[in-house]
Amino acid sequence: MKARARKGADRLVRGKKLLRHIHGAGGEAVVAGLGQISPDLARYIVEFAFGDIYSRKGLTLRERQIATVAGLVALGHAQPQLKSHIHGALNVGCRRKEILEIIIQLAVYAGFPAASNAAVSAREVFRERDARGLRN
Amino acid sequence: MKARARKGADRLVRGKKLLRHIHGAGGEAVVAGLGQISPDLARYIVEFAFGDIYSRKGLTLRERQIATVAGLVALGHAQPQLKSHIHGALNVGCRRKEILEIIIQLAVYAGFPAASNAAVSAREVFRERDARGLRN
Amino acid sequence: MKARARKGADRLVRGKKLLRHIHGAGGEAVVAGLGQISPDLARYIVEFAFGDIYSRKGLTLRERQIATVAGLVALGHAQPQLKSHIHGALNVGCRRKEILEIIIQLAVYAGFPAASNAAVSAREVFRERDARGLRN
Amino acid sequence: MKARARKGADRLVRGKKLLRHIHGAGGEAVVAGLGQISPDLARYIVEFAFGDIYSRKGLTLRERQIATVAGLVALGHAQPQLKSHIHGALNVGCRRKEILEIIIQLAVYAGFPAASNAAVSAREVFRERDARGLRN
Amino acid sequence: MKARARKGADRLVRGKKLLRHIHGAGGEAVVAGLGQISPDLARYIVEFAFGDIYSRKGLTLRERQIATVAGLVALGHAQPQLKSHIHGALNVGCRRKEILEIIIQLAVYAGFPAASNAAVSAREVFRERDARGLRN
Amino acid sequence: MKARARKGADRLVRGKKLLRHIHGAGGEAVVAGLGQISPDLARYIVEFAFGDIYSRKGLTLRERQIATVAGLVALGHAQPQLKSHIHGALNVGCRRKEILEIIIQLAVYAGFPAASNAAVSAREVFRERDARGLRN
């Protein structure tokens, strides 16, 4: 039992740490809000998405965020997650100009509507960050 | 005027050069095959996708390929293009292990079926490259 | 003519009955609202979706709602219909906990963004029902 | 009973007639094949898709086929249906060049992979028709 | 060379002209708004989508708008673009009744949720046009 | 270390057991094949999809398979996974007729092309099972 508790804690602790590192207080708030609907779904996001996947080697966090933002632009129906991960990408070193480059790049593959809606989400993120006095 | 004069030809020339640089003879064959169905659609891919977008600054070619592969994994219905761009990513310096990392990363956002089908496409690409004696 | 009128009425009557049984006054209001835009589209939903499909044997209404909620979670772009069918699922005997289980299950196949957005829609439905004093 | 039989027959007869008119023997074979898996699903396609929808006024059959082909290009995962409806569009007066125009038009909205895959399907249709000695 | 010289400027000029012709001041405002986020993305829409694609021969503008509206209904996640192109379709001669026919037609291929959400967007467009005193 | 090994083993062992129970030797072969491309992706499917999610209480395995089949029909681009989970659904007590009911139900929400392609996948599964002498 204790063993399990400890191991269970490992993925969770590692995930929480990465969630905070990538998404900051905003991301923690999003997951906490989701946790009020479904504690388990929120836990899987921390344990699996962050504890298992984001903590993998083989790509830099910056590269993982480029891949995630690109994938969310292509999905088209995931604007809240796209905004959250644009914040995340900027938090781990991407520049705003680079976010727009990813969006422009995806216009070729997912079409201009997906890219245009993503650009609108990007602007909202940029304004949120301006309001918080963030330069990037 | 003269500048623009050059520009008309530039997009096509620049696009062809980048198509060859990223996708090599295989990519040129794909576009040539498409050109036999619709010369204009093939030309737009070279002029717009490669001449306009891929030639932009702001992201490295390696980063653009990470974004493209991620977007195509998320789309789910674009296996031929995914295979073509996995080749392209490997041609501009991504390693096979990194392609699999992008695919694993996308399982979180597009689901395991999209990731599993992308992994099968990746294996086909790796085998094609093995058959051609490519180390990467 | 009379014959047709009667038969036409059959699918419509059967559909209206099932619409009311599954979705209650809320569902009738949604279809009525759609009918103000396109009476025919609203009629097809009642005749075909409810009169033909939902009235089929072979699955219980509870199972049909599980399938519908799961399909709408996977589609990702159908939040109004997802909310409407979460109401419907709860009306025909699913429990709130089971709706969340379907959503968690779909995170594996459609990804966490689709599941997270569905969870937010589920919470809105639960609150609407709380406000109406519904226990389930 | 007889009344219902007759009315049931109306939608079915009207649908079968339109199916034959738009898709010819090839379309009838597709529906017949589907009918061997699920007679009801095949019947709904004839009754609802063709008997109810295609038989509506307000758009010409040519315009309905333009809309259907465009929608199927955008869906991306419906190549068999896209091929079937490219045949249908050509059967009701669209020219091959116009099919390619629809596909090129959709590259803007659904992206180049969806358009490229649609172009490959179009070529297969054109070859099938060449083999049958059809000029259009 | 001279021909090409003109071409550079031509795409943008031709695109702006078509954008105004199809979408009017509303469309110009949308692109201008997008231009404040990403001037290049806005320029590609004018140069490529309108300057290259919409200016092609082979389909009437009315037919191109039918195809675009149908494709956007099928995409499901592009409501702002759907609304913009319903305006465009009405501006180039489609009637409101025909827009609803396209939406009803797509219910068969993209499902009733995509069609229902499109119908809601259509109503918003119709009301915007009513408010502007437009008969069509 | 041992503790972690044991706990790590827990999710994996539980997942493997459920994978075998739901999908049998065929499912194990699919995961093994995926494991030759990416051992980690295959492990996440066993640990997370089966060890975490399928092992949850709150829905019967039969209900989880109904939800999964419905979600995969709606996704449209996941035919290999759809076939695998139709097998799984039949293995945990669904009848073939019920699989077709789920597919017919989804025609309303995901459209007839998604349903028709799913029906073709279902027939392939039924034939595979006939060849193996399975009654269900």
Present the secondary structure layout.
The structure is a homohexamer of 136-residue chains.
Chain A (H helix, E strand, L loop, with lengths): L1 H36 L1 H16 L6 H15 L3 H13 L4 H15 L1 H20 L5
Helix pairs in contact in A: 1-2, 1-4, 3-4, 3-5, 4-6, 5-6
Oligomer: homohexamer
- The span between the termini of chain A is 45 Å
Give me the secondary-structure category of chain A: mainly alpha
Main pleated-sheet profile of chain A = none
Alpha carbon gyration radius of chain A: 16 Å
**Biggest interchain interface, per-side counts:** A-B, 32 and 32 residues
- What's the number of extended β-strand segments of chain A? 0
Task: Provide the succession of SSEs of chain A.
Answer: HHHHHH
Indicate the percent of residues in helices of chain A: over 70%
DSSP strand content of chain A: under 5%
C-alpha geometry of chain A: globular
Observed structural traits:
homohexamer; 136 residues; mainly alpha; 6 helices; 85% helix; globular; disordered N terminus
How would you describe this structure to a colleague?
The structure is a homohexamer. Helices cover about 85% and strands about 0% of the residues of chain A. The N terminus of chain A is likely disordered. Chain A is globular. Chain A is mainly alpha-helical and about 140 residues long. In chain A, helix 3 packs antiparallel against helix 4, helix 3 crosses helix 5 and helix 5 runs antiparallel to helix 6. Chains in contact: A-B, A-C, A-D, A-E, A-F, B-C, B-D, B-E, B-F, C-D, C-E, C-F, D-E, D-F, E-F. At the B-F interface, helix 5 and helix 6 of B face helix 1 and helix 2 of F.
